[in-house]
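Help wanted!
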Amino acid sequence: MELAPLLLLLFAFTLAVFLGFELIAKVPSQLHTPLMSGSNAISGITVVGALLALAANEPPLARWIGFAAVVLATINVVGGYAITDRMLAMFKKKEKP
Amino acid sequence: MKEVLINLLYIVSAILFIFGIKWLGNADTARRGNRISSVGMLLAVIATLLYGGLDWKLVAGGVLLGSVIGLVVAARVKMTGMPELVALFNGFGGLASLLVGAAEYHKFHHAGAQSYVSSLAAQTGVTVPLAFAVIAISLTILVGGITFTGSLVAWAKLSEKMSGRPMVFAGQKTLNIALLTASIAGATALGAQPAASWSAGLVIGLVAASLLIGILMTLPIGGGDMPVVISLLNAFSGVAAALAGFIILNNVLVVAGCLVGASGMILTFIMCKAMNRSIGNVLFGGFGAIAGKQKASTGEMRPASVEDAYYVLEAARSVVIIPGYGMAVAQAQHAVKELALMLENNGTEVRFAIHPVAGRMPGHMNVLLAEADVPYEQLQEMEPVNAIMPTVDVAIVIGANDVVNPAALDDPASPIFGMPIIHAHEAHTIYCLKRGKGTGFSGLENALFYHPNTRMLYGDAKATVSALAAEFGK
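Answered by r_m:
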């Protein structure tokens, strides 16, 4: 049993919590929607886990479940980034009248 | 060697996510932030593919199918439908995490403990205690499932496929706590005896329980509180991804998921603060379900015609426009922009007052008005506008309700008492655009509508605003 790598992961987890808090603390409210939708796209990072479930030597059922997970996570990622970009594009163009 | 390269790439992608989130928080850099974070995601996926040995047909098919669906939906959605779409995407993310947990469990169940642990070790270079992996699987399923059905309920409420009213029944809280306790006990039992004959049944039970908790948790929350709920569920989907990362000991999953979890939590608190409510009150308050105790509004609502409103507006020196979800529903943002232009050409000073929780998502109104090209400087936050409100000639409330309800200031029995509002009632004349006489999304009477200086303009907001602009054009 090796606990050290797990503790290291827990360490990264804890630091990321504080980092997340710090990053968001002072955001103007008009950016809350794009921020939420942009970070929602990042939560699609679970696509990494889904891809790894598709190992060729795994039982077919695990692969099909993994396939469904890849599709859903990719919708989350691609759709999330695309919609956020569309929103932010509208914020941009009112630079100078 | 391969593992080293993959993990170095993961570190780069985590850095890109961090800059992405940081830049998203500033208007000038937001678009760049979103793009850099998408590059981070691409890098994370490429790095993952370097592990090799995957079923390439399924990989290519899944990524292609997901990308096409995501792009098409994102390109087609109307800006007004944004909140429910984000809720839906978020639900997909949650379900994906649940499925990752389920797939990992099936691998373990199929191959047996020894072989599962050694194949994990082969991939990550680390041998983990089996109990740890199994508990991580259970928690991923639990949080992923709650995120999925919770987001679906939020989506249904936001798109008005179901009533926005809170649904409360006796013993609801007890049932939720019992389900959650049972799920955690189940996860612990799985951790203690991962190879027991009942473990597959328990995992299926866990999936069912998590889906049920998500529904039961979101049902009692009123439509007006959905912005907070989406933000919270967004945090949950991050946590689910981070937990999935603990199953397969994947750094980038843990760090990125956790970043989203933490930033989502903070955003949730910021929003609760804007409504002067605690997170517990939002989640368990059954807000607005117990109505009837607050002060009955006295007097009557006074309707006015578009012509009457035009004469008042024509003579006004300063006008504040207060948009709410009604503007989004009526797709009236372009007409509103038109009216603002007409007013300005007439020598009137025009401001837009944006309440932090106006609409169904924080900043929702800013997005819509930006879409209609309303200049950034005209959009003002609540405090500066309230300071000048007594000097304002006309306040035009377009489909906003709770955020201008003076009961929040003077009626301690009102469920929204204490929530900061835009002081529309202090303007000399108030015009409220409203579809009909009923109560709004939250189901509360609005004292502003009965105010002596308020005139109601009934009808579709877009039609009314266009008619007003047309009067100016005559």
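OP: Thanks! One thing I noticed: The first helix of chain A runs from residue 4 to 24.
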